[in-house]
Amino acid sequence: MRAKLRQFFPAGWRERGSLLLALFTFCFLAAPSALLAAGDVAAAQTRTVVVGGDRDYPPYEFIDRSGQPAGYNVDLTRAIAEVMGMKVEFRLGSWAEMRDALHSGRVDVLQGMSYSAERSDEVDFSVPHAVVNHAIFGRKDNPSVNSLEELKGKSVAVHRGGIMHDYLIRQGLGEKLTLTDTPADALRLVASGKIEYAVVAIVPGMYMIRELKLTNLVPVVRNVATHRYCYAVDKGNAELLSRFNEGLAILKKTGQYEVIHNKWLGVVDTAPIDWWTIVKYAAVVVVPLVFLLGGFALWSRTLHRQVALRTADLTREIAERRQVEEELRLNQQQLVQADKMAALGVLVSGVAHEINNPTGIILLEAPILKRFHTDATKILERYFEENGDFTCGGLPYSRMRQEVPKSLAKIQDAGKRIKRIVDDLKDFARQDTTSGNDVIDLNTAAQAAVRLVEPTIRKATRNFSVGYRKGLPRVRGNRQRIEQVLVNLILNACQALPDQERGIELITWHDAFRDNVVVRLRDEGTGIAPEHLSRLTDPFFTTKQDQGGTGLGLSVSAGIVKEHGGTLEFQSDGSGTTVTLTLPAYHKEVDA
């Protein structure tokens, strides 16, 4: 081989020949890279997932008397691992140690972590699998407090690294905080009189009071903060997070989640009942019983009057029953349609999950090819300068050196676009588990809705325009449901256009006078007949029944907007329709 290279390359070219030989060897070896990457994905699915958790946070997760991991989180993780075909290994320790272990890679996932916006900058959260309410605990002889603000100036114990540790620091209560390794240590300090109050999650707190027999402790305020409880992975580990999300969804559909939840969190005993409580409840029972006996005496004397009144009521009940039956029939139709939409959402989520795998390979390989091309260009340019143009991939190198970087950039941009579309579809189809009290950006919701229906918009019109006003105030609500409203409105506008030359305009702005955030959608379609305007949001009313319309889209949308405290208005002049969506602006309350 070396002899042939000496014949092919002139003297002085041996070093260059070695470089070219290395280049060609790399090209041949790079061919099976996609197969190797696919093998790596399969290997990742079979490896053992290390799951971290708190060793002393009952009933969520703890080490039992036999030295084994136990609790709600542990049972839930085992069930997810079983349905997803994963192997898991549990490592329970102090909470601060487990958070460090996640960031250092010693554990792959934390099975129970309360969500906060600050924490989401460090880790990625799953959909919530529980809600944790926190309470203020104190001794029975402590002065009464009614909120976290009243703890200022008092000694407070809190779990180190826990969500309430972060929260109290942000609220300016860090000056007298005593940090403990476990919530149980915080309660012991209060029971012993060394600390005045402890802020602990209500369920673990009541559980530990009962188990440790801390009879002098009571929850002074039962709910001072509520947080979503999720799985957490290191930032960017989307593949592992999607497997836990998918497994959790399966458990909820099959009923296993409810069984596990009821086993550990369904019933929590409260503080022991004292004699005064027994007397109070006995009075509540005995006093009504005395009145009930007197009522029976009166009832026996007025029975004949009720018989006559009952006869008159029967006629009214028959009419009401017919009305209820009609409402039940309509509700059944709505449930059938809702079930179809739920099934479609599951299908979309599954397809999106399958698309994510090849898209991930594209996004992984494209940067490698770009770096390879950058390194190889130095050698090829030198060869081009010394020997002139040559053929590369069937085309002159002078052309390929301009086209290849553009092609690689297009491949990477296309992969990112596919991932963005898939993420939007998964968000839109994901089961709604939020409380509806999130602070959202209406511009972001509108942009996501436009991306979701972009293929329909391109088919309907060549003149689609948007205007997003910068600096809009946020609104409070559920982003997924607001996106659903905007998707319905945009689809209706597209269906109203008779040809592609007619346009659609979407704009947002802030109505400072009424303090509302407004989205206005204007189409140049066929318009709405005046007699139909007042019935647009009635259930099952549709003018497009021959096109498969159900009459539920605008009805559901109006209900969602009403739940968010907003309005949905329609105007039509025969040459188009204008829909105006208004939602109250949200302003964060500032302490005086």
UniProtKB/TrEMBL annotation:
Family matches, as InterPro entries: HATPase_dom, His_kinase_dom, HisK_dim/P_dom, Solute-binding_3/MltF_N
Signal peptide, first to last residue: 1-37
Coiled coil: 314-341
Enzyme class: transferase
EC number: 2.7.13.3
Limits of the Histidine kinase domain: 350-587
Pfam families: HATPase_c, SBP_bac_3
Keyword set, alphabetical order: Coiled coil, Membrane, Signal, Transmembrane, Transmembrane helix
Reactions mediated catalytically: ATP + protein L-histidine = ADP + protein N-phospho-L-histidine
Regions crossing the membrane: 281-300
Matches recorded under PANTHER family: SENSOR HISTIDINE KINASE, TWO-COMPONENT SENSOR PPRA
Name by which UniProt lists this protein: histidine kinase
Organism: Geomonas diazotrophica
